[in-house]
Design brief:
CATH topology of the largest domain: Transferase(Phosphotransferase), domain 1
Oligomer: single chain
Shape: rod-shaped
CATH class of the largest domain: Mainly Alpha
Number of domains: 4
Number of helices: 16
Low-confidence stretches: 1-36, 122-127, 622-666
Length: 666
């Protein structure tokens, strides 16, 4: 069948339902065209598949026979998983994929896979060009037939705009007129190509449709003002009462202001904390410079005699170690400051000396103490781990000595369970004397302690002596025997000669040590209250009482019980020589140590001889009971001779042991 001499009609399955007389007969006033007779406005098949993956395929397009209006609108779903949709049965369009179809606006979005830049999309199927566009345009306009709206409306049976709320629009390309398409009227939306496809739009559901009460009508809407004492709420799109609106507005404003204030406070807190941290950092750097931190760092790093473990700590490290200098961590108080117990990050237990602020003098003492202790390595001198320079008065970090000071044990209350024995007192005195002798002559540079007292003689876990507190110490050049300094020390221990002349020498420490010996003998404090209620100086009291009374009446009862008269006399005599007013008449610390070691050796020998005698008497007693009837008197004589020989042998071995120990470094 031919509708025109040069255009064959497109016979479709859809046309078979029409009477033969109306298939391809347009009205007389309409020119014959395949666009007219090729479109079928009715879907001939029910249950048509309208999706290819996520792409909707509405009528007049379709995927199956009877589901599309004409062959030009036939599509092929290549892959529903990837939503690959392509025009079907058109070899010219194999390289064109369909992304989506906009029915109401007559648009098709396509993707070209051809490399031909001059390719012009042209959908042909033996009929007119209903799709037109260049490669630059990915969205194509399409028409349902190559007719004008006037021509199409003359044939009601083939008219595409079947929805009663639709209208006809002409479609033009850049070069020519394409045809007509359908669109829902204003106020309606949907598919104009199916019956009842254009549905009314409820404009009242759209934001900003009215600034009052909205009334929807078919295809339109109208607005009325809100009633009295009400106002339109944009959020709910309703008229609400003024009070309710004000309440909601007030709550909203309150919440907003509250969050704003909270945010501002948080920002201020953060800013203040950061400002304080910056101020603290600047202050710590300032203290570090004022405390000659760079000089001390160079001193510690360059001095070959300085201990390798001496470290400059940061203030944050020591704050963490002492729980920010918690008062419960205080283990000692004094006139110059406090001592805290701390635990470093490497689990070492330390004592942190925090001096009171009293100007440049304390700083000079600190630097002096670090300089002294960095050069000392002795088992009876407290070990310095390091210092902190980031405070106004720097901090010193020592090894923690758990059993406190000799002063604390000697002068503890009567309820104390622990009491030092006379043997312990002699040992502690000998160890302290050895440490002071090391400072005076065995160290690389002579050091005068200048504050020897029982408070500065500490006892570790094994009650081993540890001499401490070198803040007042002075380094003395090798070629000098004394230095002239400001008077410094503790009343009761202070050398009178040094006090009057200002000349510090090693004999000043000897005098102070003599007071410690008197403390061990009398168990009285260096400044004590007498029975008459007067304050008395211990050294003066001791020297006076020695002239007036026997020693047995002066020394403490415990010393009298545990020691011999010879030992008391020897220690008292040593203390008396140490306390002489003229320094040149006092012994050196080496002589003091040797004398104390000699006293200890005699005591040790006597105790061993007594033990040997007791053992021998027990042995002889056993022999006399068993063998005396057989051996007679001569055996007893031989045994006494052996006993005397053995006693001499014991004495010789003890003397050798003492001489060997005196040569060992301390």
């Amino acid at each position: 069948m031919v509708c025109a001499a040069h255009h064959p009609c497109l016979p479709e399955i859809n046309d078979r339902s029409r009477p033969p007389s109306t298939r391809c007969k347009p009205p007389p006033t309409i020119r014959r065209t395949d666009g007219y007779c090729g479109y079928d406005p009715l879907q001939r098949k029910t249950n048509c598949s309208r999706w290819c993956g996520h792409i909707s395929v509405p009528f007049p397009f379709g995927l199956e026979d009877g589901c599309f209006a004409m062959m030009s609108f036939q599509l092929n779903c290549i892959n529903s998983t990837t939503s690959a949709l392509q025009f079907g049965n058109h070899t010219e369009d194999e390289n064109t994929l369909v992304n989506y179809i906009d029915i109401n606006n007559g648009l098709v979005n396509v993707k070209y896979s051809s490399d031909d830049k001059d390719y012009v999309f042209s959908m042909k199927s033996g009929g007119p060009e209903l799709f037109a566009g260049s490669r630059e345009a990915t969205t194509l306009h399409w028409a349902v037939a190559n007719l004008t709206c006037q021509e199409a409306q003359q044939n009601k049976a083939g008219y595409a705009c079947v929805s009663m709320n639709s209208t006809c629009l002409g479609v033009n390309s850049a070069q020519t007129y394409v045809g007509y398409s359908c669109k829902c009227m204003f106020g309606f939306d949907g598919n104009p190509y199916i019956a009842d496809g254009c549905q009314d739009i409820d404009e009242c559901k759209l934001p900003g449709a009215c600034n009052g009460i909205c009334h929807n009508t078919v295809g339109s809407h109208y607005c009325t003002q809100c009633p009295s004492k009400t106002v339109y709420d944009i959020a709910t799109m309703k008229c609400t009462s003024t009070k309710e609106q004000n309440l909601v507005l007030g709550i909203a404003i309150g919440i907003s202001v509250g969050f704003g204030i909270l945010l501002l406070i948080l920002v201020l807190i953060f800013s203040v904390r950061r400002w304080k941290k910056d101020i603290q950092k600047q202050l710590r750097r300032k203290h570090f410079r004022e405390n000659q931190g760079l000089l001390l760092e160079q001193l510690i790093s360059s001095d070959e005699n300085a201990s390798d473990s001496t470290k400059i700590f940061s203030l944050s490290e020591l704050e963490k170690a002492t729980n920010n200098f918690d008062p419960t961590r205080i283990v000692g108080r004094g006139g110059h400051g406090m001592v805290y117990k701390g635990i470093l990050s490497d689990q070492r237990v330390v004592a942190i000396k925090k001096s009171k602020v009293s100007g440049q003098f304390e700083i000079s003492q600190f630097i002096n103490e670090v300089a002294v202790l960095s050069q000392i390595n002795h088992r009876n001198i407290v070990k310095l781990f390091g210092c902190c320079l980031e405070t106004e008065v720097p901090l010193l970090v020592y090894d923690f000595i758990p059993n406190g000071s000799l002063f604390g044990i000697l002068h503890a209350s009567s309820t104390s369970n622990f009491v030092l024995s006379w043997d312990d007192c002699l040992r502690i005195a000998a160890e302290a004397a050895g440490a002071l002798y090391y400072l005076h002559s065995a160290a690389s540079v002579s050091i005068f302690h200048r504050d020897v007292k029982s408070t500065n003689i500490l006892l570790d876990g094994n009650y081993t002596t540890k001499v401490s507190d070198f803040g007042a110490s002075r380094l003395v050049p090798i070629d000098q025997t004394h230095v002239v300094t400001n008077i410094q020390g503790t009343f009761g221990y202070l050398d009178p000669e040094y006090y009057h002349t200002g000349m510090l020498n090693e004999k000043s420490d000897v005098y102070s040590f003599g007071v410690v010996l008197v403390e061990l003998l009398l168990r009285k404090e260096p400044i004590f209250t007498s029975e008459s209620g007067l304050k008395q100086n211990l050294s003066n009291y001791f020297l006076w009482e020695m002239r007036e009374k026997p020693l047995a009446e002066i020394v403490a009862a415990q010393v009298q019980e545990e020691s011999t008269d010879e030992e008391i006399t020897d220690v008292a005599s040593l203390a008396e020589t140490c306390l002489r007013l003229r320094g040149e008449e006092r012994p050196t610390m080496k002589q003091v140590e040797m004398k104390l070691q000699n006293i200890r050796s005699k005591r040790l020998r006597s105790s061993q001889v007594i033990g040997t005698n007791e053992d021998m008497q027990s042995l002889l007693s056993g022999q006399s009971q068993v063998a005396l009837p057989l051996l007679g008197i001569q055996s007893g004589i031989v045994d006494r001779a052996n006993l005397s020989s053995q006693r001499n042998q014991n004495c010789y071995s003890l003397e050798q042991e003492f001489m060997a120990s005196a040569t060992l470094p301390r």
